[in-house]
Amino acid sequence: MKSFILLLCLAQLWGCQSAPHGPGLGYREPDCDDPETEQAALAAVNHINQHLFQGYKHVLNQIDKVKVWPRRPFGEVYELEIDTLETTCHALDPTPLANCSVRQVIQHAVEGDCDLHVLKQNGQFSVLSAKCDSTPDSAEDVLRVCPDCPLLIPLNNTRVAHAAEAALAAFNAQNNGPYYQLLEVSRAQLVPLPVSTYVEFAVAATDCVAKEVTDPANCNLLAEKQYGFCQATVNEKVVGDKVSVTCTVFQPQPVVMQPLPDGANAANPAAAVEQATPASLPAGPPAAPLGWTMVVSAPRGPPLNRAHYDLRYAFSGVASVESASGEAFQPAKPPKVTQPGVADAVGPLVLPCPGRIRHFKI
């Protein structure tokens, strides 16, 4: 009997030693505020802003979730969920993001929500896929903080169109340089006191001289694009509009071809969108980790009655990561081994995510 028990124990010991250790090709969950996680998130925000040609630049506000997958044969893929906040810098503004102010609640803030896959290889981060959307703060939240603050209104509002045209005409009338065309109306608000319309819009220089233009339809955008950004308040009066406009003209930006990330075979699909500088972006779908495929769906254009430029329209489609077999890449979470009584001994578990809020939460 003792021999049988000994033989059984030896068999169990051999079985334990011969079984593979660990969950195999699983993922790890680092802290959302881990420096390397933040590096991946900042690379993701930089990617988002590089593919924005309308609306405003965004900054990182919070990292909500992170999973890190091994990528064969080399590297890792960070699966991130992040929150962003809109800044006051237009997407075409060359000002470094670090110098852009975050739009505050009383200015009717806008929050972005993004899901991204970021490849880390040879110490470098590159974005494989991105899916974003953005939403303005609720009117109730804004008015709770500032009852008299103006709220966002649809960009196709007739008062907005009139204000943008009047402000652009006033700017061209006092401009001694090239004639500028309206590129987009980026933001609009109705100001209660005094009753007026506040607009922000982007402009582009043409080959016409402002003082000599007779028919703007004959003016063409310059080959070397030169953009500007204007802020204006238009007070409609019976005897004529009272227009206050200030424009900042950016230095011409050279067109630079973006190199493909190491190990990637194409760039992000944002190049497929009709952008202000399409030549600066290579075409093609985003690169996927080895053994995965990218599925990109065709987008719909932004609605006409929108009050802001939604981040979802910055990309040509919704990219999702799938396995080579065609099934959605949703591997099961590896089991976590815990020791009985350990949690009770150390007290409540401190969750590594979501991370810290860098500015404010909407």
TrEMBL record:
Gene3D superfamilies according to UniProt: 3.10.450.10
Its GO biological process annotations read: acute-phase response; negative regulation of bone mineralization; ossification; positive regulation of phagocytosis; regulation of inflammatory response
Cite a GO CC annotation. Answer: blood microparticle
Protein's cellular compartments: Secreted
Signal sequence bounds: 1-18
Q: Which UniProt keywords apply?
A: Disulfide bond, Glycoprotein, Phosphoprotein, Repeat, Secreted, Signal
State one molecular function term (GO).
cysteine-type endopeptidase inhibitor activity
**SUPFAM superfamilies linked:** Cystatin/monellin
> Can you give the residue ranges of the Cystatin fetuin-A-type domain?
27-133, 144-255
Q: What is this protein called?
A: Alpha-2-HS-glycoprotein
